Amino acid sequence: MNRQIRQLAGGLMACYVVLFVALNYWQVGRQEELNARFDNTRAIRREFESPRGPIVTIDGVTVAESVENPEGSQFRYQRVYPTGDLFGHITGYYTFAFGSTGVERTENDVLTGETAQQQIRALPDLVTGRNRDDSGSVRLTLRNDLQAVAREALGDRQGSVVVIEPKTGAVKAMWSFPGFDPNLVTNPDFEEARAVLTFLENYPGDPLLANAYQQRYMPGSSFKVLTTGIALQDGVINLDTTFPDESEFVPPQTTDPIENFEGTTCGGDLTEVFARSCNIPFAKIALDLGVDRLLAGVAEWGVGEPLPIDLPRPVASTFGSADNLQNQLPILAIRGFGQSEVQMVPLHMAMVAGAVANGGQMMKPYVVDAELDHDGNVLDVTEPEVWKTPISPDVALTLNGLMQEVARSGTASCCIALDNGISVAAKTGTAQLNARGEPERSHAWIVAFAPAEDPQYAVAVTILGTTDEISASTGGRLAGPVAKTVLDAALAGGG
């Protein structure tokens, strides 16, 4: 009898162990995988029956919140976005049928109260039996007022405006056009919401993607900041380096000459050719650096790596294919002034300007300032972090001076002068997309920071060449006024 009891006890213990292991495997080990399955709706149904915390700007404007639905609705709560499309690319959307994007996705655990900290803080309620809302909130780094100024300044031209703090990497404004209103996607009517998504997915300009950090474009002469920084850092050039006046230059391995913008004659010392944005000197600088040093240099600036922002699916800037580049020196020369296969993410170009402004240190960009619990207590605060250090403080100071000259007497002097005489540093770009003999098509760029002697904000403006009017202009004339408007607003305070 005792033997049978021992066998039964052993069998029950074995069953318990198997059950324990199985439960841990499915409920802990594979929890994330199971919750992510499209056919597992129980977890998300539970979330829609509970309040979800708000997303708020640094200046106190609520940009996402949950409201109670009328009785008889499918779910108790509905996610709404009071500012419409203004922060659509930042907040993203949170839906039952189509998942989530943006901060709604990356900060889901905080907003639903599922972080370890929130769960621990809720333990006393289990003892007291208190029923409370454990959802958290997210405070963004962005300013509602500055975001609105960026939207107004860009207007209905396809492109983006990015404003960051050079010393921290905090994003203060990041607007992309075309955008979208997440309220239309969170519509509880499934068919209507699906029709909106289908429309947006097929609309020109990819409005569901943020031009600012999920797309990349040919930067034109704004890329000369990188080429100049690499050459200064490697000692290939200095402020005394001079270039002859010329309108054409034939690089090795070709008979096809490189020209300055609109075929102008251009030359002089480094300050002059940078301010006037001559193409030929920077083609020569690229050749003097050579393939290996130029490739290594752009990598130091983070080109080729996805941007380390706390938002989903950022893309990487690219210098183009490096295959057989030693035998394609004309292409290397053209890439030296931001043409050919070079493509930069607008946010990355704001970070480039920020690195110059910040003594050579490029900070990680971020949009989440702090995570808070339901009572407003801080769960976590984002600490600024250096991502890259592509240039020394001395080189950064030299580039700062070169960019100030662009604003004073160069290609940005027409349109970047700030209110109250505040000093500014800038670099323009007009990226020519058309081949020789084809109709003009170009993107307009400018990167800038101010005040030049103690930079507080850096900006990158990109206006895509989708119309003849845009393509007929330049980065200084077209993007310059947008950068001025945004920098004036940023420096005026608020937020």
Précis, in short:
By secondary structure, this protein is an alpha+beta fold.
Keywords, please?
five-stranded antiparallel sheet, elongated, 17 strands, Beta-lactamase, alpha+beta, six-stranded mixed sheet, 39% helix, single chain, 16% strand, 495 residues
Describe the protein:
- The chain is an alpha+beta fold.
- The protein has a domain at 217-368 and 384-491: DD-peptidase/beta-lactamase superfamily (Beta-lactamase, 3-Layer(aba) Sandwich), CATH 3.40.710.
- Helices cover 39% and strands 16% of the residues.
- It has 20 helices and 17 strands.
- It has helices at 2-29, 31-36, 42-48, 88-91, 102-106, 108-112, 116-121, 123-128, 144-154, 182-185, 190-202, 211-214, 224-233, 270-276, 280-300, 329-335, 346-357, 393-409, 468-471, 475-491; strands at 55-56, 62-68, 77-80, 137-140, 159-164, 171-177, 242-246, 248-249, 258-259, 266-269, 362-363, 368-372, 378-381, 386-388, 425-432, 442-450, 457-463.
- Strands 3-2-1-4-12-13 form a 6-stranded mixed β-sheet, with no helix packed on it. The protein has a 5-stranded antiparallel β-sheet with strand order 6-5-17-16-15, sandwiched between helices.
- A hairpin with a 6-residue loop joins strand 5 (159-164) and strand 6.
- Helix 9 (144-154) packs antiparallel against helix 20, helix 14 packs across helix 18 and helix 15 packs across helix 16 (329-335).
- The chain is elongated, with a radius of gyration of 27 Å.
- The chain starts with a helix and ends with a helix.
